[in-house]
């Protein structure tokens, strides 16, 4: 019952980079139909601010190395509770776990289809 979602390749790389550094419950939401201005949200989280910063660095390095892209802007790095990395056609949200639970973007955007970004994982509910 999955909906096929066309994801920007760099968004997939961002998710893979977060996963490589143990980002928690990394998901990619297809946002094209809902927002029109951005194709995808990559959402991941970490248990502490040091890990949040590590995830941001790894995502930035992975996307740059694989696609030659740097974020247009990065917001929230000072307190590292919710870092937003704007790549233009997709946005990466790196949360401190308690901030992710509070803002609950997956629920807010529950109409957005989850994109498949990893072959070996099939999320059930």
Question: What does this entry look like structurally?
Answer:
The chain has a single domain (9-104), classed as 2-Layer Sandwich (Beta Polymerase, domain 2), CATH 3.30.460. Helix content is 37%, strand content 23%. The protein has helices at 9-20, 32-35, 49-67, 97-103, 105-108; strands at residues 24-30, 40-46, 73-75, 82-86, 90-96. The chain has a 5-stranded mixed β-sheet with strand order 1-2-5-4-3. 37% of the residues are buried.
Keywords:
5 strands; five-stranded mixed beta sheet; disordered C terminus; Beta Polymerase, domain 2
List the helices and strands and how they pair.
Layout: H1 9-20, E1 24-30, H2 32-35, E2 40-46, H3 49-67, E3 73-75, E4 82-86, E5 90-96, H4 97-103, H5 105-108
Parallel strand pairs: 2-5
Antiparallel strand pairs: 1-2, 3-4, 4-5
Helix pairs in contact: 1-3
Give the terminus-to-terminus CA distance: 12 Å
Strand content: 15-25%
Regarding CATH, which class?
Answer: Alpha Beta
Report low-confidence residues grouped into runs of 5 or more.
120-125
Q: What sort of overall outline do the alpha carbons produce when their principal axes are compared?
A: globular
Helical proportion, percent range: 25-40%
Q: Remind me, CATH topology?
A: Beta Polymerase, domain 2
CATH superfamily: Beta Polymerase, domain 2
Report the radius of gyration as a whole number of Å: 13 Å
- Number of helices in the DSSP assignment: 5
Instruction: Enumerate the strands of the largest sheet in spatial order, edge to edge or round the barrel.
Output: 1-2-5-4-3
H-E order: HEHEHEEEHH
Global structural class: alpha+beta
Number of domains: 1
Arithmetic mean of pLDDT:
91
The largest β sheet comes out as:
5 strands, mixed
Query: How many beta strands in the DSSP annotation?
Result: 5
């Amino acid at each position: 019952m999955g909906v096929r979602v066309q994801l920007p390749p760099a968004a997939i790389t961002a998710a893979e980079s977060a996963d490589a550094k143990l980002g928690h419950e990394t998901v990619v939401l297809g946002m094209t139909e809902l927002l029109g201005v951005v194709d995808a949200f990559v959402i991941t989280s970490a248990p502490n601010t040091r890990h949040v910063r590590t995830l941001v660095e790894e995502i930035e390095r992975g996307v740059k190395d694989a696609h030659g892209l740097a974020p247009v802007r990065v917001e929230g790095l000072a307190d590292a509770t919710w870092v937003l990395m704007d790549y233009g056609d997709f946005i990466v949200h790196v949360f401190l776990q308690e901030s992710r639970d509070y803002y609950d973007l997956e629920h807010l955007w529950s109409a957005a289809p989850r994109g498949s970004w990893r072959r070996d994982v099939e999320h059930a509910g």
